Amino acid sequence: MYFACPLQSAHNLDRYYVGLTSDVERRLEEHNAGKPIHTNKFRPWKLITYTAFLDKSRAGKFEVYLKTSSGRAFAKNRL
């Protein structure tokens, strides 16, 4: 399974991150430990939701969509 996971900064509620992983818990721990350079200054992160896919390609396409302006609007209103 592959998961598209939007995260939100617990301290800066306007900061979001969308990623793709096969292990949601491990990836969230990595973000909160400061391992990814792009997200370490806005930690801690909280998981908003995740969407599961059997196919990595479809999960990747959904992740890319969530990073677009229409995808961000969708996530803000629906997720």
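Second entry:
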Amino acid sequence: MGDAPIGYQSIDFSSLSAWTRDDDHAAAFRAFLNSCRKHAVANTVTGAPPCAEALAMGSDLDAGAARNFFESHFTLYCLNKSSTQPSFVTGYYEPELRGARTWGGRFRIPVYGLPNDLASVVPDLYRASYNDRVTGMRMNVDELVPYFTREEIEAGALAGRGLELLYVEDMVELFYIQVQGSGLVHLEDGSRVRLTYAGKNGHPYTSIGKLLIERGEVAAEAMSMDAVKAWLHADRRRGRALMAENKSYVFFRELDAEEGRDGPLGAEGVPLTPERSLAVDPSVIPLGSPILVVADNLSNSGDQHFVRLMIAQDVGSAIKGVGRGDIFWGTGEAAGAIAGRTRHLAWFFLLLPNR
């Protein structure tokens, strides 16, 4: 079996009733295959023998065969050290918005690509571990200085450099595709563009929702993405000032038709699968790892329990530590609604390959 990670408790699949409450292990298997295909030749968790076996089996497994695959090739570990230390899950999604290729009319807010003078001093994949400091720099005359903040960029610090990918009509909507890390932009000619995260300016991410709670502007029990958006739209000047307090600014790249065919890409470089892809802290949970997530009073269906075998395929600036996860809910308004209210205690059970 090999040594368990420090602090992890191994358990039998048969002793965990939640394991059988997910009735579609085949959906998790297909998401796992996405990771395997990406890293088939890499010496990582997803390049280990379970991946070779999964690739040989193909994507047409039924739920029972998929469940047997995971039970046969992995050992299950509980990541929660005690009943008083549950994990915590939030949610994210891919927003949809309207935009244009050229500036004009109602489309005047630029979406920027990654600047070539931005130097990151830490690996971007592990940005959550360094969210307490500035990690993006630029050369100013003969010294390195922190890169431009959100406020400076919105004031025009990058204008005229040819970095504009698209233009959108609402600064709040641009803010939220930056928070979510992707966006599906519908153009006026009927085509659409899928944007994916390309990098950030290296300033710490600050949750404006948390600021609103701390200042008594929105009650904690009423907090949701819709509540924050309503507050931002109610007074554009104060809304812009609040958004500027999150100095972090995200840059994008446009996916071509093939890359963006199956959905937005996560940090692992594979399409995200609704309710099967999880953002994690990769310094403690390897990307490509299967994780059973159990959360009460959270559901996108009829019952009130979220039990899903998910695959660690993404990261986020606010997702730090073994006890944090971010559930990808999908694309569009309905996915955004449940993502915006996902703030739940949960239990994580990590599947690691048998060694």
